[in-house]
Amino acid sequence: MTDPQSDDLYLNPTQAALFTSLNYLGMAFGCTCSGALQVKLGQRVTLLTVIPLSMAAWLTMAFVPVDAIWLIQIARVIQGVVVGVIYVTSSNYVVEVAHSDYRGRLGGTLAITRQVGIMFVYLLSLTNLSWREIALLCGCVSNIPPFLGLLFLPNSPRWLASRGCLEEAQKALTFYRGSQYDSQTELTKISEQFSSSGKGNSFMDQMKMMKDRRVLRCVLFMSFFVFARQFLGNTVVVSNMSSIFHAADV
Questions:
Q1: How far is CA 42 from CA 70, 102, 143, in A?
Q2: Fewer Cβ within 10 Å of end Cβ, the chain: N or C?
Q3: Which InterPro entries does the entry link to (predicted)?
Q4: pLDDT tens string for the chain (250 positions)?
């Protein structure tokens, strides 16, 4: 895409820098907006709603006209927004459906699969595939299997309980824990949490929880931690690895 001798779409240094950066700006917006979507729709429905948008962005990148650089930049923004929503929502979905004994390990697999995905794309660059074919392949691999899988999964039991759908919540717990598990006891504990606090049933209810100093202190600490982590340079290095190696002539 940065080869001036190519007959295909060409990005000058400024356009290439935008192409790399717009994705992360979109992710910042998507992560911020994902909370309200999860409270309103639930994690599963939120993912089913945004995954087709992700696929559309990948298809746009794969088939963008040679002279429509603005279109591929818009696709990158949309892709970033959707990825931001998916990243946060999928994490919360795993946390809410997983049993406490396996929650940490399952949550850790999300970070592992992200790194495997990055390695997968770099390995594709060793083939004779063009960047358009790689974009098409990435879109299919990262969107079609999750979308089909989510069609056969129930909503989060905790989210269903927060909406008052206790019968569906128990069915979801039975699905995730197995028929031999005492799902009624866990559902009772979840219901008691909501009834005792009277919170968590809407986005505004969750925002009101910030009045609790303990909650606010934890949120501020984690926000600072996540914010500071972005300045470690990992994102910049991963996104510009190809350019770095070309500049080093290795």
A1: 33, 21, 19
A2: C
A3: MFS_dom, MFS_sugar_transport-like, MFS_trans_sf, MFS_Trehalose_Transporter
A4: 888 888 899 999 899 889 988 988 999 899 888 888 898 899 999 999 999 999 999 999 999 998 899 999 999 999 999 999 999 999 999 988 888 888 888 888 888 888 898 888 889 888 989 999 999 999 999 999 999 999 999 999 999 988 888 889 999 999 998 888 888 888 888 887 777 665 555 667 777 777 888 888 888 998 898 888 878 887 788 888 878 888 888 7
The whole-model pTM stands at 0.82
Helices (H), the chain: 13-41, 43-63, 69-97, 103-124, 131-151, 157-162, 166-177, 183-197, 203-208, 213-229, 234-239, 241-248
The tokens of 114 are what? 């992200």
